[in-house]
Structure formats: structure tokens, C-alpha cells
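User: Please run a holo structure prediction.
Assistant: Happy to. Please share the sequence and the ligand.
User: Here you go; the ligand is 2-aminohexanedioic acid.
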Amino acid sequence: MKNKNYEIIVNKSKDISLRWRSVPAPQRGELIRQFGNELRLQKESLAKTITKEARKIQTESLGEVQEAIDMCDFAVGLSRQLYGLTMPSERPNHRLQELWHPLGVVGCITAFNFPMAVFAWNFCLAAVCGNSIIWKPSPHSNECAKGIKDAWDKVSGEFSDLILVLEGGNEEAVSICKDNRITLVSATGSTQMGKELAPVVSARLGKLLLELGGNNAAIVCPSADLDLTIKGIAFSACGTTGQRCTSLRRLFVHKDIYEDCVRRLKKCFDDLVIGCPSKEDSQIGPLISKNSYDSMQHVLDSLRNKNVEVIGGERLEIEDSDEYYVKPALVLVKNIEDEMLTETFAPVLYVKEYEEIEDAIYMQNNVSQGLSSSIFTNDIRESELFLSESGSDCGIANVNIGTSGAEIGGAFGGEKDTGGGRESGSDAWKNYMRRVTATINYGDELPLAQGVEFDEG
Ligand code: UN1
């Protein structure tokens, strides 16, 4: 094990969880409120760290810190709403009730692309629910993790150990997954990573919360407002240099508007400002690594070899930088190509024509992932079909907005190879607690459930 501190970190986290769990939830919320205020004060500087490390443009980095602040606000309110149900008992003088209790230690494995917000999704909920957290950030974002930990340490006093950062790579992730003392493992990353880690957690029957790859599609219908649609597509496909799990990868456009839509998309992609992410006007920064660049080029090369039309995708020299800036690629496909079925974590958008809405929905769903999806239409029949049980099979389904950029208030996550987890809003907090069903007999007799008789003597 590279990280010699592993045992110390897990023991410290366990200890603090035992103290924290008996702090009343609204008081836990109070500490999260102060954390949110600290993030507000440090918003600009934390955003700069994101831009420096994850290479996001400024407005997106600020948005990411805002997402963490929003999570704090949400969790503060939630700290007074960790409701359990009370059910009518079938027995006289009995009460049947659900209690929600903390799990203990939560392990949180995050990716480079949302180096603060995804941690905040997990931490804010885990903390108000009475848990401590051990955070293994991506090796690409240790500085972002340090920024968050420092902000927490400023406000947390004796509860500083509620966040403990475990730097490292796969080996550390596996240690967390194997460790019985860590009740829940929440992991964000590729489907491949999830398929490696999940069996390790499952082997010890641990709890899992997975946020894995997407392969998100949008459908553009004849009645769509094309101005709004092109904007939505550009942000979802090219924003964050195509490196969100919610990034738009596939586009199905109705044949009547296909030519017009492609023409406008080409123009829009040409007009995007690609440049150093700390510059005010840049809209697209570099890819995170050479690896990302290589896998993007590999996919585009194999498409070109099959004579599929690829527009853009080339590397751009920006101010003598050795980073991997690329022009987003539009790939115009006649048929479904194998490359479309896997997620390439880069700005590559496949565009295909469709004739019937049912075919478009079928193609959209016919991949192994199921995270996010969109339809652009002003026809209520199409949008309602898309949202119905016969429509999108994803965890997120949007109408007239792109696939990326979800708010924290809704539950975030997806089906199939995306892993099935739900984080952030709605009732995702239940993942971070254990449910106790309690039956209380306040009478002086002992009636058995289902009318069973068992008289003694
Ligand atoms: C991710 O890429 O892992 O909906 C998360 C969005 C962001 C979160 C993305 N709020 O695009």
C-alpha cells in the first residue's frame, strides 16, 4: 500500500463517526451551514484551483463551487427532515415505525471532472445523516480536495476528521472497497472502474452507490426551436471539453430539419472559442491528459477508416502550450457505428437522421449506459412519449434543455451500466442511513402478528 496513513485515516474516521452520530441532526446541519458560508467566502479562489487543476473554464469552475454551496443549503434543510414513516399496526396498542440511523464511515471515490461538486453531493448528505467520510479524489485533483478540506478545517473545530482525504490511485480505491469498517462506498468514474470495484464491495456485502459512465443522446424533432436547440447541444456536447458524465454524445435529428440542423451545428462548432481556461472569453479548455487525447484520436481514426464523415477533432496549438486542446468533432453517421456504443470522454458528437420518433427513442436507449437524455420539441405528444415508460430509459430525461448541467435538487444518476445510484437531491439521503423498523407494544397483552396463537403452558 502506497499510502502509509491508510490505517490511521480509517481509525480516525471511525472514531469521529461514533462521536458525530450522537450530535442531533439539526446541529449537524448547523456545521454544514457554516461550511457553506466558508465556501461562499472562498468561491473565487476555489474556482481558480478547479481551473488550474481540472482545466475548466472560469464560469464552469465558479458553477461547480456554487453546486457545492447549493448542496450545503440543501443539506441544512434536510437536517430537520430525515423523516421516518409511522405505519398503522395490525395489533392493538402497538406502534410500527421507521427510524433512520447513520451508517458510520462512508468511502467516497471521485473523478477529476467534478473535483469538488460530486464530493459535496456525498459529503453534505453523509454528514447531516451522521456519518464521517474518507475521500479518495482522482490523482488529477488532489489540490481541489485539499482546498475543500482546508475550508472544512476552518469551520469544523473538533469535527475536523469528518473529512479525511486519502490520496492515491487504484490501490487505495481497492483498500476502501475491501474494508469492512467502511459501510458505504460511493464511487464516481468509468463503467470499467465500477465493474472492477463493485465485486470487491459486494464480496463483503458492503453498500454501494455507483455513478458511472453515460452515453447520452438527444432527439431533435421537427417542431424544435432550433436557436434554443443548437445552444443546448453546443453546451452539452462541447462544454467541459466533453468531459462530463452527462455530456451529449449522440444526436438523432428528424430528416425534415437534418440539413438545417447540421449546417447550424457546423457553424456553431466553428465559432466556439477554444483557449486557455483562465482566459475570460474561452469556452473550451484542453483535455485532461494525453490519454484522453489519444483515445479521442483513436476513435476518430477508426471512423475515418470506415469512410464515416468526421468534421473537426484535430489538435490545436494554443499559445505554445503542450496541453491537448482539440476542436470538437461532429461525426455524421448514416448507420449506427460500434464507436457510438462506447463512451469516449472527449468532445465527439455523433449525428444521425431519423424518420419516426419511436425509432429515435429506440436508438437512444439501445446502448448499455443509461444516464441522461433530452428531447427538443414543441409537440406535447412527443415530449410526453419521451417521458413515459415507453420513452427514455435513463435516470435523467430533459425536455428542451441539453443532457448536462443538472440542478442538485433532483436525484442524480442513471440505470444499466451507469450503475443505478442516485445522489444529491430528492431522497438520495436514504443511501447514507440505515433503516430500522421498530414495533412498540404499549399494552399489557402480547398479540402475535397474522393472528398466530402461541399460548404458554
Ligand atoms: C459528472 O460529470 O460526474 O449534471 C457530474 C451535470 C453536473 C454534474 C455532472 N451537475 O452535468
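The chain has two domains: 6-212+419-438, 216-399.
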